[in-house]
Amino acid sequence: AWRQVPAPLLTITVRDHGPGVPPGEQERIFDKFIQSSLTKTGAGGTGLGLAISREIVLAHHGLLSVHNAADGGAIFSLTLPQQQDAKHKEN
Known about the structure:
Number of helices: 1
Structural class: alpha+beta
Radius of gyration: 17 Å
Helix content: 10-25%
């Protein structure tokens, strides 16, 4: 029987040293036109960057997420398969 073996993953993390993202907002900041309540109003932006980034990553079968560092700041993680899965075709 044919069995799909998961592809090796590549994970990239980026950390900032800002205020972090409030726990109730960690998924919402990936929605279109949403910014964290801790974002200063003078920071500009439309609230589209993370939404677009997540859509691109999902299209490549990856994951984009955020969590707060224990000593402050946010850690964004991008996980992608290192290779595309081959499609299995029955003859």
